[in-house]
Amino acid sequence: MSGIRVAVFPAAGLGTRFLPATKAQPKEMLPLVDRPLIQYVVEEARDAGIARIVIVTGRGKNAIEDHFDTSFELEKMLEEKGKNGLLDEIREVSELIPVAYVRQKQALGLGHAVLQARDLVGREPFAVMLGDDIVDADEPCIGQMMRLYERRGNPVIALQEVPREETRQYGIVDGEKIEDRVVAIRDMVEKPAPDKAPSNLAIIGRYLLPPEIFDILEQTAPEVGGEIQLTSALKTLLSRGPIDGYLFEGKRYDAGDKLGFLKATVEFALKRKDLGGPFRTYLKGLKLDS
Hints:
By secondary structure, the chain is an alpha/beta fold. It contains eleven helices and 13 strands. The chain has a nine-stranded mixed β-sheet with strand order 5-4-1-6-11-8-12-10-9. Strands 2-3 form a two-stranded antiparallel sheet. It is globular.
C-alpha cells in the first residue's frame, strides 16, 4: 500500500462568515495568536509526513502565496537588526514544505475546488485538508487517518460527534462502528435537520481519497447555485466500495466561525509558554458576571 504524499488545501472560498474582516484579506490568513490559520494546517500535514501540498486559491488570495514564499527584504532587515529568533521563524515558514498553487476562477463549491488540483496531484491517493478546521492533537489528525488508511486501504473521512441540534451545520453520516474510532459509512446526508439526521456523526475537514474521486467529480452534476459538492461525489464513491469514518483523537475548533475562532484563540494562547501565564492572570481578573 503506497503512502499519502500530497495534500490539497482548498482556499478559494469568499470567507463570508468573517465579513467585513475578509473583504480584502483571505480568511485563511486570519491570525490565530501569531500564525495564520492555514499555517497550522500546513504544519499538521508536514508533521504527518506529507511531502508536498497543493493550495487551491482564488482572486484576492495572493497573501497566502506571499506568506509561504521567501521574503528577502524582511529577512535582510531582521538580519541587520540582529533579530535572529524572528529571522529563524520567518525562514522556517518558507521552508515548511514544497507548495504548488492552482486557481479556482469561480467559487463553485468544495468539490469543484478539489477538482482543480487534479493535474498537480496525479494518479495517486491524496489528502484534503480544510483550513477552517484546526485540530489540536498529540498526533496530527491527518496522520492518525493515514495510519488507518495504510492498515485497511479504504478512503477515510474524519468524523466528530456533535450535539444533535447542530446537525444542520454539517454533513452527517449513517454508519456502524466496527472498531474503536472506526465507522463503516453507509450513507451521507448534507446538513440534515436534527429530526431527520441519521446520527450525530459530523464530517470534519480532513479526507483521504483515491484518485478516482477526480473522475467522479468531473461527472458530478452541479447543485443549487452551480456548485459541485464533495459530499455528492463521496456518495458516488461509497456506492463503488467501502469508506471508513474515523473519530480522531484531539480537539477540533471551527475557526471559520467567529465563536469557534475566539475559543481557539483563547485556548491556544493559554498553552503558550510566553503568553499563558500573563494571559491566564488577565482572564482571572475579568468580571465575567456583569
